[in-house]
Each structure stands twice: as C-alpha cells, then as structure tokens.
C-alpha cells in the first residue's frame, strides 16, 4: 500500500497477532489474558483481533466494524484470522474477517476503512460530568472468582456514575434511572486505536443488567464499533445505555470518551441475558 | 422447523422475495420501487431482503442484523440471496447472508434469531412528545428529482421535529441543537417485522446532515437493526441522532417508535457523506 497512513497503524500488543501468510492471514493464541475467567475468549478480544487484522490487511484505519460471535474459543486454542478484502477503492476499503479454530468458525466480522482527510471529528454531544478516575470506586464483579489470569487483569475499571451492583434486585417494573458510566484503563496500553476501543467497549450488557437490577450475565451475539477519533488517551469514560430488551436479548450502546472529553467512538451490541452464565467452569 | 413461530413469520410483499433452491436461496428483482431515484438499490431494500431471507431460512424471528454494502445493484438487476445458517441452537440461530448480481457480491449480512418467550419488551426510555403524523409537514427532499417510481413512492415521510432542510447552511462550528424526528408510513404495509423496520430505518445519515446544516448525501457503509418489539403499527416515529463524524464518515442512530409509543427497534449506521451524491443519473 502507498497510503502514508499505512505505516502508522498502531498495534495492540496484548493480542500478539502474528502474520502467517502474506498480508491477509494472521494467527492469535487465545491466551488466558484474552479470555474470561469462565473459560472462553472474551468478546472484546475477538473484535479487537478482527479490527487489527483488517487494518493490517488493508493498510488503512478502520472506521466501522461489526463482529458476530458464533463459537467460544478456549484458553490455549490458536485462532486463525483470514481477511477477505472485498472492496479496495481510491480512499475506502471493505473487508470480511473470519476467525476459526481448527477450521471451525468462531466469529466473523464486517468492516470499513478509509484514508480521507481527518480533522473533521465531531461529537454532537458532550461527555457527562463525573468525578476523575482515581476518585471513583473500583468496579466489583457481581460474582466471586479468583482467576489466576484473565482479561480482568488487563483492564482497570472504576464506577463513575450509577449503580452497577447486583446485590439488591429491583422490583418488577422498576427501572433504575440516571447515568451509568465507568472509567477504564488498559494496564499495558493507551486506548484510541480501533482494536483498543473495541476491546474496552464490550461492556454494554452491564447497562441492561444494571437497569433491570438483576445479576444477569450476557452472551454477546455481536459487537459493533464506530470510530470518531482514534487519538490515544490513558483513561476512557464508557457512557453506558440500555436500549431495549426482547426475547431475553438485551441491546446496549457505549459511548467512549477520552479523559479530556473527546469522543473516541460509539459501540453497540446485542447479547442474550442469562442467569446461569456467571459460573466458573466445572473444572475450576 | 417445528417452532410454533415458524409459520407466523410475516412477509414484506414489496420485496417480492422468491425461494429458488430449498430454504436457503432466494431471488429478488431490483424493481425501481426498491431503488433510489439516482439509479441504484436503496440500502433499506438490501437489509430488508437479507432480514426476510434469513428469517425464512431459519424459521425464526430476527433479533439483530448488520448489512455491509459493497456494490450498487441497478434497477432491473436480479439479486440472488444465499443464507448460510452457521449456528442452529435450541432457541437461537445465527446466519450470514450474501446478496450477489451475476456472481458479484453487492452486500453481505450477519444476523441472529431466537424463539425465546417474548413479553419482556423493555425500552428504558420514552417516545418524544411530537405532533400527530397528519399535523406534521411533508418531508421535502433537499434536491429536485421527478422519478417515475422509486422507494420515495413507497414511503410517506413527515417532519415531526427539528429542521431537516438544507437551504440555510449553518456556519462553521455551529451545530443545530434539539430533537430531530420523522413520522414514516409504508404505502402498502404495516411496520413491525424486521424487514419493514430495516426498510424505514435507513434514514440516519439525514441526522448528521441536519446537525451539520449541509446538503450532503450519504453512501451507507452498513445498516444495523436491533429488534425490541415487532408488533405491527401503521405510522412509526423515527427519532434521529447524529453520533459522530470522522474522515467524512458520519455515524447515526435511529430509534423506531410505534404511533402509540411502543419501542419497536433501534438502528445504527455509518455512511460516507458526500456533496456530489444527490444528482440524478446522467441518462435521466
């Protein structure tokens, strides 16, 4: 690629993505740090890997990606990522990405990239006014696990607004009002690139659980990210919205803000909400 | 399929979708009424066809769909739709759909379906308070065409709130504030099914144009729909939000409400915004 941006695309080292066959095939070990404590790949890892593989294959920064989750790689699996560059235009590229383990499809992604001039970033809204990250309490998971290593250990999370607790269920028909927001920071990386935004934004179902006041776990059907500004930041504020529930499928939106109030991106996802989900694997 | 819902899935007659090879392959003529006045398939037609083909192939109602637009079928083309049912679980199905013309890929979709018990529909928000449809003015397009037939003639549109006009551009840095909303009605169909919601929700880029106060046209990269309640209604209110702009790509959200205030679904999309888009084709 001759785009001047092609050499500036950032890598998200946590993924440890390795090219294996020219520019369109990559491999990623499902390390325990990319998995949940429950013994399967964290959805944020799958969409992040797709985003980075697609950026490397096209040489162009990602503007939008949707990842559909079909299977659950286990810790120790090796994931093969293949990028089909379906459209290469003067300024835009569009791809489909498949993630497989031993030939079985685990996730598939659609994405768009372009190299048009930037500097037109517009948010149309402003970041909520919340306390600074270090003035907010740590996020306490609604379940008790003590994993030696999982994506939990890659991601510092602090509750900035709202009640993201599950010990006092709401009554039927009650909906917790008000803002729900969380500060996040990656232990070993800034956040801004498509891959890092995708990794931290996979928390939307928490908003549906919080609004319902029920200790539900979510199995993501998809994860979708749209980029507004990829300039890196340390902490990000995730503004979490519950959009709706139907047939046990909860829809949620996550607006991603830099610590100084820049809009970085907007994520949306649908997840099956379950009460049986947050158990450690039987052999734990 | 033995699901009791499998025989109750509604058809969107406008699409004229015809099964051609068992349950997984369909064909749709790109009739002028499914196209824009500018000589290409309306994005809402592509996502609607994917949604209906996927529902028919799985026998299960759709909960979420994302369609990626890669090419532009012309009026008169015949579109072949192939559904790959990748996952069939006890309650859930997940598919990928491809739409091709003479073997060339025009759009591809990812979707999820399930037959869990409904009755849990929750919106977490309320419909904006706007005048009734017939008390709102017709939507005037920001360009002048007189097509004999196009998707415009399938869709009645009335401006319920905000300024969706393009004759008075805003100054640099100005952003039009306030609610933007539009009533829509299909001439020959109720709205509620995934296909009909997808068809009417392809108007999000208007929100970005309205906020910027510029007469831009949009080329959709994707269209994404999440279902909250498919019970049919006559008029729907589209609550339009501009989510962000970057590298000329505008992101938008459309909340879909029934006339009596039920949340039907939420749509989101990214589109390249252009000033050169809204011209009739050269041979018009």
Arithmetic mean pLDDT of chain A: 88
Main β sheet profile of chain A: 13 strands, antiparallel
Q: Could you tell me the strand content of chain A as a percent range? A: 35-45%
Separation, N- and C-terminal Cα atoms of chain A: 47 Å
* CATH homologous superfamily label of the largest domain in chain A: Hotdog Thioesterase
Domains of chain A, number: 2
* CATH A-level architecture of the largest domain in chain A: Roll
Describe the structure.
Chains A, B: It holds the Pfam family 4HBT_3C. Chains A, B: Residues 135-272 form the Acyl-CoA thioesterase-like C-terminal domain. Chains A, B: This is Acyl-CoA thioesterase-like C-terminal domain-containing protein. Two copies of one chain form a homodimer. In chain A, 11% of the residues lie in helices and 37% in strands. Chain A contains three helices and 13 strands. The first copy, chain A, has helices spanning 43-58, 194-200, 205-212, and strands at residues 18-21, 25-29, 62-69, 78-88, 92-101, 104-114, 155-161, 180-186, 217-220, 222-227, 236-246, 249-258, 263-274. Chain A is globular. Chains A and B meet through strand 3, strand 5, strand 6, helix 3 and strand 10 of A and strand 3, strand 5, strand 6, helix 3 and strand 10 of B.
């Amino acid at each position: 690629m001759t785009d001047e941006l092609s050499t500036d695309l950032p890598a998200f080292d946590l993924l440890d993505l390795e090219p294996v066959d020219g520019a369109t095939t990559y491999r990623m070990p499902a390390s325990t740090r990319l998995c949940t404590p429950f013994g399967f790949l964290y959805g944020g890892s799958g969409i992040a890997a797709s985003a980075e593989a697609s950026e490397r294959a096209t040489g162009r920064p990602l503007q939008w990606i949707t990842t559909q989750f079909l299977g659950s790689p286990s810790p120790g699996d090796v994931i093969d990522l293949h990028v089909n560059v379906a459209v290469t235009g003067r300024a835009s590229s569009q791809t489909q990405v498949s993630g497989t383990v031993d030939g079985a499809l685990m996730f598939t992604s659609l994405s768009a990239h372009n190299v048009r001039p930037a500097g037109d970033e517009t948010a149309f809204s402003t970041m909520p006014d919340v306390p600074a990250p270090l003035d907010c309490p740590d996020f306490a998971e609604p379940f008790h696990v003590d994993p030696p290593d999982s994506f939990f250990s890659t991601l510092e999370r602090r509750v900035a607004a709202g009640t993201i607790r599950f010990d006092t269920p709401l009554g039927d028909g009650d909906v917790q009002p008000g803002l729900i927001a969380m500060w996040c920071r990656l232990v070993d990386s800034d956040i801004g690139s498509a891959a890092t935004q995708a990794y931290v934004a996979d928390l939307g179902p928490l908003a549906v659980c919080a609004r319902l006041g029920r200790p539900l776990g979510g199995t993501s059907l998809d994860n979708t990210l749209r980029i507004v500004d990829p300039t890196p930041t340390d902490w990000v504020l995730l503004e979490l919205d519950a959009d709706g529930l139907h047939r046990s499928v909860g829809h949620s939106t996550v607006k991603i803000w830099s610590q100084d109030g820049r809009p970085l991106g907007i994520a949306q996802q649908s997840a099956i909400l379950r009460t049986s989900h947050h158990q450690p694997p039987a052999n734990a």
